[in-house]
Design brief:
alpha/beta; Elongation Factor Tu (Ef-tu), domain 3; Rossmann fold; seven-stranded antiparallel β-sheet; seven-stranded mixed β-sheet; 6 helices; globular; binds FE2/S2 (inorganic) cluster
Length: about 270
């Protein structure tokens, strides 16, 4: 993967929904983006909006929602993992085959994979944050170990996308180990393997902060895919600013993937949804 981002074409494109399948607590939405770039980078994201009925009771349109893609196929098919947690995500979750989906992207800067010490990578995903970890693990193949954490067994069904190759932790022990995924990471980094890997993580802010601290203590390089409210997705609204050691950045254009070493903390005002 090169460190330069894949640029989004100007303007939004109308994609068509090809499938929308339940995956435990999530939906896996597939849309064909006929005119879009075929080579998004894991960690880049798209702004999504339903073409029809994208509004509340008073039909005021919602802002598009930002989603990291989970998989991109060479024929323009894009897959997104989503959980219906509010009116916008509920509308996306109910899209049917053949419906239109406005999308803009790919946006932002994704994961860089050239700096894995010894070529090893540990990927850490939490909840809906497993989406960019999936395409990254596809790209890295057997150079990556995957650690996934979920709230429950219903959420952990998303681990099936990884083909059984991931270690799983759940809060309630209903799938995998009853543990936080950061405990799995700590054990992996302390297992005596002298070839320390590079860590790549996406998940809720407390998980990312724990990953940042664990890696900082051990001097392990880490990249974190951060989330914040994104209104425009291309640098215009400043709704996604995040504090770093070098000042404020806009996550939609300077991230969403940042080096953990650039952050004092991943728990900043506005982090997450
Ligand atoms: Fe508007 Fe980042 S989402 S500046």
């Amino acid at each position: 993967m090169s460190d330069s981002r894949t640029q989004a074409p100007f303007g939004r494109r109308l994609a068509r929904i090809e499938s929308n399948d339940r995956l435990g607590a999530y939906r896996l939405l597939a849309a064909r983006d006929a005119g879009g770039p075929r080579d998004p980078q894991p960690g880049q994201f798209y702004m999504l909006a339903a073409a029809e009925r994208w509004g509340g009771e008073d039909e005021r349109p919602y802002l598009p929602r930002a989603f990291s893609y989970a998989r991109a196929h060479g024929d323009g098919l894009l897959e997104f993992l989503l959980e219906a947690v509010g009116p916008g995500t509920r509308r996306l979750a109910e899209l049917a085959v053949g419906d239109g989906l406005w999308l803009t992207g790919p946006l932002g800067i994704g994961f860089r994979t050239a700096d894995g010490a010894g070529g090893r990578h540990v990927l850490v995903g939490g909840g809906i944050g497993v989406a960019p970890i999936l395409c990254l693990s596809d790209e890295l193949g057997d150079r990556a170990e995957v650690l996934l954490g979920f709230r429950s067994g219903a959420h952990a069904e998303a681990a099936a996308l990884f083909g059984g190759a991931a270690a799983i932790a759940t809060d309630d022990g209903s799938a995998g180990r009853q543990a936080l995924v950061t405990e799995l990471l700590r054990e992996r980094l302390d297992d005596g393997d002298r070839r320390q890997p590079a860590v790549h993580a996406c998940g809720p802010p407390p998980m990312l902060e724990a990953v940042r601290a664990i890696c900082a203590e051990r001097d392990v390089p880490a990249q974190l895919a951060l989330e914040s409210g994104m209104a425009c997705g291309f640098g215009a609204c400043f709704g996604c600013v995040a504090p770093t050691r070098n000042g404020y950045v806009r996550l939609c254009v300077d991230g969403p993937v940042l080096d953990a070493s650039d952050l004092e903390t991943a728990l900043f005002a506005g982090a997450g949804h």
